[in-house]
Amino acid sequence: MVRAAGGPQQGHRLRATSPPHQGGEPRVTITAPALDLLRAARREGYALAALNAVNMETAQAAVRAAEAEGAPVILQFSQNAARYAGLPMLAALGRELRACAAVPVILHFDHAESPDVAWQAVEAGFDGVMLESDDPAVLAPLAERLHAAGAYLEAEYEVTEKGERQATQHQDLAQLAQFARDSRCDLLAVALGSVHKQAQKTTRLDLERLEAIAAQTPLPLVLHGASGVVEADLEVAARCGLSKVNVATELTTAFSEAALEVFQTGARDPRRALGAGREAYQARARAVIRLLGASGKARALR
Prior knowledge:
The protein is built from eleven helices and ten strands. By secondary structure, it is α/β, with parallel strands linked by helices. β8 (187-190), α8 (207-216) and β9 (221-223) form a beta-alpha-beta unit. The active site is at residue 110.
């Protein structure tokens, strides 16, 4: 039973939380499944923005952007964010924002460094995780455990090494389909040309490859490193099989630049700078949500 939150102003709550965690099975919430939101996105030709957050202000901005656009959203914390703030703290923040949101919110933990960390995230209330592994022998047992707890697993299929395609497209697609089956993953992250931490929007996606992959597997497909991708390509990709698009660098850059501008005026109250950063992040996140075609989709999911 994975979690998507509906706000009280809608006249009903989608969430019903189990008793506090006692150290056995993870704390779960009975709601409309997160995977249903992602499958609906793939079926209807739009993508959910997976908005990376690193602190309270960026997490608030992500959810506020989704509410302003009337869109379901993925609030995403990474392994690096957990190293900075602590997994329990991030989980508590995410759970509270999810519970109070006026739109469906999926709480996702990205790039978990081990199966143990992935499980800790689900115990803490995350709806799903992406494990930093492409080994089906590691992924499949974790998938079984997560599924029993009502959570999902995202896996990343690597297709390049040192910039060279490892196999012909026909061989590669067959291997990809086999990987999806063997890993038992629910979401499949695929390489289409994007790279992490790229600030300039110059990368072109391999849209033909995306269409071929989408024809090969019914799984919701994921793109990592979307900040550096040409926007027109993202718009097309969201209609052609991508269901989850990870965005981090352009959002944190907008946040940092706005906060720095306030600090440079001589302001000493950090709330002024962090508040400006939050507004800048929210504005950029709204643009991403619109680009991916998710604006207004929350209404159909109530």
